[in-house]
Each structure stands twice: as C-alpha cells, then as structure tokens.
Design goal:
With 179 residues, the chain is mainly beta. The protein has one domain: Porin (Beta Barrel), CATH 2.40.160. The protein is built from 1 helix and 8 strands; from the N terminus they run αββββββββ. It has an 8-stranded antiparallel beta barrel.
C-alpha cells in the first residue's frame, strides 16, 4: 500500500505545480478485452504540458474464469496515474504514443459474493478489496481539434487478488478535449 500512497502524493504534487498553466483537460471512454471477458474504462486527463498528463481512471471488468468450473467475477478499480508522450508524428501531430503507470485500488467480486457454485462446489477465493500497480500504453490518432481515437493497453499487477496477480486490458475508444 506504500507504493500507491507514494504515487498519489506524486500525482498531487505534479497537479499542484501545474496550476496556472493553460493546457487542456480531456476525458476518454474505451471498451475492449479484459482477461476472460469485457472491460470498460473512463478516464480524466489533466495535461501538465504537451508531453505529460496526470490521469484518473475508473475501470470495470465483467468476466468468467473458464476452468474446471465456470466462475463469474467482476473487478472495479480506480487508478491514479502519470503518462509521458514518447513518440509523436512531427508533421501535423496526428499520431502519438504515451506510456505511463500508476496505482490501483478497487474491489473484486467473485461469483456474485457466493462461496458455493451451482454444482455444489465450494470456492475458496473471496470477494475483497484489491490494490496494486499498472503500466499502460496509449496510442492516439487525432480526428479533430476536440476528438482523438484512443487505443489503450494496460497491464495490472494486483498484489492481493484471488483472480490473478497479472491482469491485462486492451481497448479502443474516444478522447474528448475539454479546453
């Protein structure tokens, strides 16, 4: 939990230093593949300058572990993070690639909170609060002054998850620049 506290402190510090700048904020929505199912992510970005932004995102996954038994689960997380532009098309600034990372805190619900499956089998995993870190990659294709197409890939490391410690998400969506 100390890592997430440190990342939140760094994010707030960066936000504090950026006050007074006139860079844009943006919101985004993406949907796509999450391990064993579907995920959706909403993001708010505070652009510190042309090459850096602080991000706060909310992620939800609806999935089903298909092993010996089919066990449905859901993951809901909040993720503060920080991203840096690592590549941008110099002509017209139409394409960009950003990398970043951050913290995760959330809740996983296994089998709708029931420890008993329909077959009578008992699940030893339990619904619980989870935490961890993430690394992310975002591709952006500018559509207009206000919109861009967003291609997003995150890898999560849940320190205490019963679903699995490593959890991927890949999605496609839109980003809208507020001002």
């Amino acid at each position: 939990m100390k890592i997430s506290t440190l990342l939140i402190a760094l994010l707030l510090t960066a936000f504090g230093y950026s006050q007074g700048s006139n860079y844009a904020s943006s919101v985004g929505l993406s949907g796509g593949y999450a391990e064993d199912g579907f995920g959706i992510m909403a993001t708010y970005n505070y652009h510190l300058n042309r090459n850096r932004y602080a991000q706060l995102s909310v992620f939800a996954a609806i999935a089903e572990d298909k092993g010996s038994f089919d066990i449905p689960y859901n993951i809901f997380t909040v993720q503060p993070g920080y991203f840096i532009k690592v590549w941008e098309q110099k002509n017209f600034k139409k394409y960009a690639v950003n990398v970043g990372g951050g913290a995760i805190i959330g809740y996983e619900v296994i089998n709708n909170g029931n420890s008993l499956l329909e077959t009578g089998a008992i699940i030893d995993a339990k619904s619980q609060f989870i935490y961890g870190v993430l690394v992310g990659l975002e591709g952006e294709i500018t559509l207009s002054n206000d919109f861009s197409l967003l291609i997003k890939a995150n890898e999560y490391y849940h320190i205490n998850s019963d679903v699995g410690q490593f959890y991927p998400y890949a999605g496609l969506g839109l980003r809208y620049f507020l001002f």
